[in-house]
Amino acid sequence: MNLAIVAGPATTGKTSVIRHMIPKLQQAGKKVAFLKIDVQYAEEDVELADEFQIPTRKVYSGELCPDHCNVMVLGDALEWAEEQGSDVLLVETAGLCLRCSPYVEEVLGIVVLEATSGMNLPLKVGPMLSLSDIAVVTKIDRVSQAEREVFRARIQDVAPSVLIREVNALYGIGIDPLVEAILESPEVKGQLYLRGNPPVGTCTICVGKKEVGWQSHFGVVRSLENQNFYRGQ
Amino acid sequence: MIESITIVGGHGRSGAPEPVRQIELKMGNVVSIVGPTGSGKTTLINDIELLANGNTPTGRRILINGDIAPSAYRYDPAQNPIALITQHTNFLSDLPVYKFLETHARIRNKTAQGVDALIDQVLSFANQLTGEPIILTSRMTELSGGQTRALLIADATIICDTPIVLLDEVENAGIHRTRALQLLREHKKIFLFVTHDPRIVLLSDFRIIMREGSVAEVLTTNQDEKMLSVGVSALDDTLCQLRDKLRWGKRLRVEDLEVLA
């Protein structure tokens, strides 16, 4: 089984990219399964099942962070995809708080960013970008070529080793290299490990303390003066 | 070294094969793309910019020096031989002009001779095309449509410095076209203009005529048209002068049109 995890902020075109990957994977003789992880609303599972007659699932993370949810359900999802007779599982996840990334060691991690989202976005998405293997840039037809090239430079500044691929997800141009990367990725086996370090636990907010101000909290506290640039490692 | 690009015909919107099967553009050629709105002019330059290889809706293929373009052209901006100036006249980029140009020069590997000198060159090129000058500390998003287009043309010519430049309806930008054509002609490149402007068309070596999503015909500018182009340029200059006078708050007079008599 080949597994690819596709992450990215809302409305960047993750599903459009996947929609173009599926037929190309099918042409390569692969049976594809799809899992969507979102917080509270998604219908991509129904759409893609209709469009390509493939097994799909969705899971709402609800009160959990989607990345946390991903860690919980990925093992089950692989078993499910296996039962469906699939060779490739594509997981689409919204990622959310940008403290950890949904990527797994030895598994292809793809982040989808839009060229229209402003030059500072690459600096803001943290490990979702810096721990990915491939950064896909969508909506390239909406900006000037110069701006596209500068956006790419901003990605390279934050994540020098990440492969950048520009795609036009309307027409499916630039999808082939992504499909090749999935086909060339190693088969998943054994215990899977999350790439990068999860955020430090014991969050007082998570356990229900509502007072504002670090003085009211314990464990991991931070004042305004304590700033760092976070890469997830 | 890029010496030529070849457009290999695909199919029109109806699915019928494109009437013109092959067009070769050689280094130094100035070419116009003409046709009514919706005839597929912009789609053609998008195909060229994407180095289409049968993978766009038109099924066209673009060859460089007669061969399929190396994938590095698409994936390494420093090697991309094509600069495209689109009709988009707004920047989304939230960077100051200096930072934008500096970053672009860096990714295009053009910083060897000194970034500031290069940026000065871009700015002086752009400011010859605009009314109000562009200032390096302005944010890109604050520039007007004309300033944006002028900056993009200067950026494509000096920072990208690519052998192939595609310009989509540059006449609509509110920039000094005559000056733009003069400045561009100083650089030996393949220029493709999507245009409705008779002056640009008649100054081109040939024109590609689009109809219903297909290249219908290719017309070389003939002797008669070359002679006409002098008159057309005079007419256009006169109109530009009138436009400038109005812009600067002056009144027009009957004598302003006498040059045409």
UniProtKB/TrEMBL annotation, chain A:
It holds the Pfam family cobW. GO terms for molecular function: GTPase activity; nickel cation binding; zinc ion binding. It comes from the Bacteria. One of its GO terms (biological process) is protein maturation. Residues 4-161 form the CobW/HypB/UreG nucleotide-binding domain. InterPro entries: CobW/HypB/UreG_nucleotide-bd (IPR003495), Hyd_mat_HypB (IPR004392), P-loop_NTPase (IPR027417). This is Cobalamin biosynthesis protein. The lineage of its organism: Bacteria, Bacillati, Bacillota, Clostridia, Eubacteriales.
TrEMBL record, chain B:
SMART domains: AAA. The keyword Lipoprotein does not apply. It comes from the Bacteria. Belongs to the ABC transporter superfamily. Residues 2-237 form the ABC transporter domain. Keywords: ATP-binding, Nucleotide-binding, Transport. This is ATP-binding cassette domain-containing protein. GO terms for molecular function: ATP binding; ATP hydrolysis activity. SUPFAM superfamilies: P-loop containing nucleoside triphosphate hydrolases.
